[in-house]
Amino acid sequence: MDAARLPGTARPDQVVAHVDMDCFYAACEQRRDPDLAGEPLVVGMGYEAGETHGAVATASYEAREYGIESAMAISEALERLPRRVEADDEADTGIYRPVDMDYYESVAAAVKEILHVESDTVREVSIDEAYLDITDAVGWDGVAEWVGDLRATIESEVGVVASVGVAPTMSAAKVASDREKPDGQVVVEPGEVRAFFDDLPVDEVHGVGPVTARKLAELDIESAGDLARADPEQLERRFGERGREIRRYARGEDAREVTPRGDPKSLSRESAFTEAVEDTEEKRRKVSTLARAVADRADRKGARYQTVGIKVVEPPFDSNTRARSLPGPVADADLVESIALELLDEFAERPVRKLGVRVSKLDFSAGEQASLGGFEGESATESDAVPADTDVASAKTAESAVEGQASLTAFDDDHVPTDDRDGTDETDDTDGQVSLGDFE
Ligand code: DCP
Ligand code: MG
User: Fold this and answer.
1) The whole model's pTM is what?
2) What is the CATH class of 266-420?
3) What is the DSSP string of 117-182?
């Protein structure tokens, strides 16, 4: 912590990005079945004939035009948007799909993997959202362009769309990511935070759900600006300490820092070529650089590693991973480089669009470096977690990536900031890379 910083105050220069996928479950279904693109699509349970209970998990933006939203009773959704398979006329009908968490988690793992490549500090808060501290990695200059590149990478490599907000605080970044959904990006620079909040409807303030919004309306507090200017004592009388808290959020005040919880499960660095490269030496040079960078990153985090792997993306999106395990954890940049280069040999003659190096099976315990007795045999060579085809079974290789990550199926009416919500707090210590973690 910065010695000059007051306790309870966020880093004054903090740059926070909040990434939230658009209509995430629906986007995953559309990724798996491109015929669903552009259709009113509802993902949920209980819509089959004879079923009487069930709720909407999410709906595509086309279905939202019919007033369908998350947590709505499925019976109401069916009234607003009848099921196409049961209708005589396609007009004003929708497509319904059941929830398939395994698949969504595999797609989420692929997105998170990209986020962890972009930033050392990623706080995953739910299946489809994360905060990134990009203060050092990006800063304010050129941040809009960086966000554009990040969103393009997610869309081209994973096939789902993210909206991103950038602001000096976590709560402002979260509100910003929501402002231009879908496919949106909003940057709120430090001097603009109060103005940004001023006109927002009060229920867009972090921690203000519909119930609180109704109570605030009784006090003539309709916008975030009204809440920011409200008398804190009056708010406290009405809502307790939470009244002061939501007022602080409405003022753009939020002392939280983006802190990843726990240790990552792997560390990686990736780099793309501007166009596909066949030249063996050029590929080897890039892998050497990445291997050194990864080893250095592990050093800084005090991590030793037992597995070294590479990722090789052949055009257009054919992602391959190869890895090799050592008998014990080591911290040895030369070794990372030589293993990575050996693994690359297989791709020596092939055109390559992107390369990555990763170390996994991390060990953060201090202590003597294990002596090397030699390599274990060649490890398995599974394809990437979310392969170009949409085979669910193979996508399940990513399951370990999201172990313990709570899925969002139930939401409080008056939701507390996602971050503080029980069960959805980031429980995944990964740096997203374990989607490939079972390549040993
Ligand atoms: N979800 C759920 N039940 C809810 C709310 C959400 O099962 N009541 C699931 C389905 C969503 C996913 O969580 O796809 C992510 O939640 P979001 O609130 O981010 O909603 P979406 O991603 O669907 O839409 P948006 O584009 O508004 O982010
Ligand atoms: Mg979302």
Assistant:
1) 0.68
2) alpha beta
3) HH-SEEEEEETTEEEEE-TTTT-STTHHHHHHHHHHHHHHHHS--EEEEEESSHHHHHHHHHHT-S
